[in-house]
Amino acid sequence: MAARHRELTEYKKSLIKRDLEMGIVMTVYRQKMERLTVQVIMETRQVAWTRTAEKTDGVLDLFEIREVRPGRNFKDFERFKDNKDKHQDSMCFTIFYGSQFVLNTLSLGGEHLLSYSKCGALLRFGNRALRITCWLRKQMYSVDQTKKNSITLKEVKSLLTLINFKVPGGRFLKEKFAVNHYTPNCMLRFKSNADFRLCVCSCRSTDRPDSSAVLLHDFQRFLLYQQKESWANNLNQVRELMTTFIDDNMRKTNDPEFTVGEFLNFLFSKENSIWDEKFSVLSSLDMNNPLSHYWINSSHNTYLTGDQLRSESSTEAYVRCLRLGCRCIELDCWNGPEEPIIYHGWTRTTKIKFRDVVKAINEHAFVASEYPLVLSIEEHCDLRLQKMMAQIFRDVFQDKLLTDPVELEADQLPSPNQLKGKIILKHKKLNIGECLGRKDLRQGDKQGELFIWDPIDQTWYKHYCVISGNKLYYAEENELEYEFGKVRPQWFPFSHLGESWFHGRMSEGRQTAEKLLQEFCSESVGRDGTFLVRESDTFLTDCTLSFWRGGRVQHCRIRSASEGGHTVFFLTENLHFPSVYALIQHYRENPLRCHDFNLRLSDFVPRPNQHQWFYSNLSRGEAEEYLLRIPRDGAFLIRQREESDSYAITFRCESMVKHCRIHKDGAMYVLGTTSEFESLVELVNYYRKKPLYRKIKLRYPVTPELVERFCTVSASAETVLEPRDLWEKVSLLTDEDNPLGDLCKGVVDISKCNVGKSFSNISMPILKIQNDISGQWNTYKTILNDFRDEVAKDMSDLVVYCQPRSKDKDHNYGYKEVRSFVENKVPSKSKSIEFLRYNRKALSRIYPKGQRVDSSNYDPYPLWICGCHMVSLNFQTPDKFTQLNSALFSLNGGTGYVLQPEIMRLDTYDPQQEMKTVKFTLSVRVLGARHLPKTGRSIASPFVEIELCGQTDDCSKFKTTVCHDNGLNPVWLGPHRQDAEIVMFTVYEPELSFLRFVVFEEDMFSDPNFLAQATYPVKGVRSGYRSVPLKNGYSENLELASLLVYVDIQQVEEAEEELYSSSSQLRKRQAELNDELFLYDTHSGLQRVGPPSRRDDLLQEFSYNEKQLQKINDTCRQKMKEKKINNSKFYS
């Protein structure tokens, strides 16, 4: 792609850019093919697609574009391959964008479009000043829909809320307007952004951003003595740097000077980053060691986009991981109907074709890195399909596939340089002894889908379930299918019960249905085909379809009958459906034909919503009593409080009842302090879709009828009684061997269940699934026994270096072998030296334990320091450990290969030995931030957590205070507006340590919610006042978001080592004493065991140690202050 990009001349680029700005009519492939105008808006750095000039259908930020993929090789095009789509491969491309693991897509087709896809990268870049201007204009347009480049004082208030800043009061903006010589009634104009930025900047912490100046020689001294920038001795380079941050061309002279605002822009810029970019540069000389000397970026179950039980498998997950720098990916291969498939065996994860995966790997294998890619293959296919796999590998990869050793007489693995552009297979090989695969913790379990009737919203919910022994474990209901627009299980006869078009039983059924349709169609100018479905008035087991045609309401009976032991539904005898839902879906897509009409079902009349969750006269105690009767998280009500214009939302979560205040601010309803809504209905609808507290969404409105229905049911954390004897008893148990781990919602003792009961008129046995699963498992089990240890010669011949080997055979290993360990079965500490010796010669791979069904990750650090090469993580989970992994592999050009430190290859190195020599002290102070992400309706109240990860002391984490209601430009100060506290870390081994910043927001319940993070290897951290560019959970840059910190790195002299060593030992002893004192205070039995004076002795030792620790810390600070005075000549 890059090579093609260079072929474009500057003139051609300008023409393409002009066309894109003017707008081009293209075919957009979504749910249907549409001809829309696609336009690049350079003012805001966005791509928009519109149906008409007045209305924008969709928009994406150029900053969020991750890939522009030419051709038709994406599923959006596959849906329409049989239609009259005339666009050739060279005329189509797909834009992948977003900040989640599963990216959004925009697939386009048009005339001569390949050149436009080449131009995608051109539009994504610009300097910081330009990006801030585009960002401000984008925010301004969001409140100035007319795009007249001017907004009022009232709109400025809305704008500041939008950009994460809470206006302190009504007079605040008026005063700011007055300072900048604006009247409250005037229009603030963008005017090339100068006035607009002045107003926004004046809301920041600097009272007068343009009042002072930083002169050229001042700036040079700052770079030399505070920032330790040796290149700043060259005054011309300093001058050149300053001019890039000066907005006014008239001031770009030989003697430039910064305004305070421009100086702050420099401090927050990427050019002033805390990270030394020289460590991100590829070192070719470091790529000549054997593979066993490297850490290799590795993924576990690469095909999954979510959890390990029921998420979607996707070829795009492979593409995402490869483009994130992964160099070892996993393929779980199973028998398909005709060809191999990939999925997580024995689970409900979806299946994808092996051939499609191999093609996707081939296209993206060397986009992010040209160094070797390892395919870790978990083989479950029979010999016939293994031969097919081998042929697919050869046909698709061709000369990329490594099939022969690089050197025949070698005694060590080849280097990454020798294996450039090669794909290596890790697979069982014939004649090297027994290959023990991973223990499948799921074997012996039976799995399937379980439908449970929810008595509150009168709906059946599908759960993933596992039967182990006589217990049935089931997970949370699967909501993903509905949220992402996938098709419901149409075969299930109850699937219509949760639909908005199904009204259940109506009083005066026909008359009520006609009234609802007439009212709906008169209000919305209803078209023919508008419909609703209700239970039949006459026939107990049937339903009635009522629809609008020709200005009146007509009714059709939906009949039901038994066919082959199952219930079917139909309007006409010749066309049967497994459910009412399937029937309605069919007639929404296909005409309903009768002798006198022919129409499709169109809009539906939703069930009337009486907002019965609102109570005007209910006390807090009564609300709690109501909620305790409803044994479901997500049950809620809203009540009027005694104060005027004040309300409270009361909801149930984690078996507790919580309250949150809602107050009126003018016409707006405000939840907490900053989440604004135009009405209570909007608030409820918003939190039905978004979590209100942790993962809990509003789900069950507590109506008087619901309270009456449950008035005799007591809520209990131990048991839940289900109606109509669906289950005798559901017990929420804790089980160490629970196959669902943290995803488990409940456990059913099958021995106490009555199998074979039917529900209402449905003939399907409720627990028939138990028998079905058993039979299904027996079939799978028999097949596995036939072929699980067999390896096809065709596949074996493709394996060269990564030959799986039993980890139980500790001696006589060869360099071509690889051992795989589950995370908690790695050789013990007593064998760490032997394990290190093995890792210096051959490869090892670590993978998560089977209980991590939620795709959580383990800490890779203890395994890295043992020399493990491929520490496989779930890349789809954006947690601390994948972020540490991204930080490590940001080294060496992001190639996915990082040379292990030389210390780890010394015979004297022992990873389990306690680190005693302090090499550096690292002091950090958080000063402020800019442009923090806004995740919901509320304004962020951020705080920062700083952590030193690696071989560190126990006290290696620090949190700032909370800066309330300001995510735009928060500043962190100490007590009485003094400088914020400096936190000091001791660094034992900078090669093996990481500095991590995490920004959280404190929500209305005082819980922390992740906003952004930045993690760096300590060896590349720079001293001085530095910006920390923030990243999302997947370690991808966030637009403009950054912290400003002060960092001081001091090398520890020999005379100081004893001080820091004593400090470390005292901290550990204090932690031990604290634990022992806690036991004495809380367990009276321990007090009786020892003598009465024991607790007093502990307290005395604790107090003495505290004084000694304070003396040592004071001495360390004094030495640091002396160093700073002696070494710095900075003139302020």
From TrEMBL:
Q: Per the UniProt entry, what is one GO biological process?
A: release of sequestered calcium ion into cytosol
One GO MF term: phosphatidylinositol-4,5-bisphosphate phospholipase C activity
Residues annotated as transmembrane: none
- What Enzyme Commission number(s) appear in the record? 3.1.4.11
InterPro entries named in the record:
C2_dom (IPR000008), C2_domain_sf (IPR035892), PH-like_dom_sf (IPR011993), PI-PLC_fam (IPR001192), PLC-gamma_C-SH2 (IPR035023), PLC-gamma_N-SH2 (IPR035024), PLC-like_Pdiesterase_TIM-brl (IPR017946), PLCG_EF-hand_2 (IPR057061)
Q: Where is the SH2 domain?
A: 501-605, 613-702
Cellular-component GO terms for this entry: ruffle membrane
The prosthetic group or cofactor this protein requires is: Ca(2+)
Domain spans labelled C2 = 899-1032
Q: Which Pfam families match?
A: C2 (PF00168), EF_HAND_2_PLCG (PF23583), PI-PLC-X (PF00388), PI-PLC-Y (PF00387), SH2 (PF00017)
Q: Domain named PI-PLC Y-box: which ranges?
A: 795-905
What keywords are assigned to this protein?
A: Calcium, Hydrolase, Lipid degradation, Lipid metabolism, Phosphoprotein, Repeat, SH2 domain, SH3 domain, Transducer
> Its domain of life?
Eukaryota
Reactions mediated catalytically: a 1,2-diacyl-sn-glycero-3-phospho-(1D-myo-inositol-4,5-bisphosphate) + H2O = 1D-myo-inositol 1,4,5-trisphosphate + a 1,2-diacyl-sn-glycerol + H(+)
Under PANTHER family, the record lists: 1-PHOSPHATIDYLINOSITOL 4,5-BISPHOSPHATE PHOSPHODIESTERASE GAMMA-2, PHOSPHOINOSITIDE-SPECIFIC PHOSPHOLIPASE C FAMILY PROTEIN
Protein name, entry field: Phosphoinositide phospholipase C
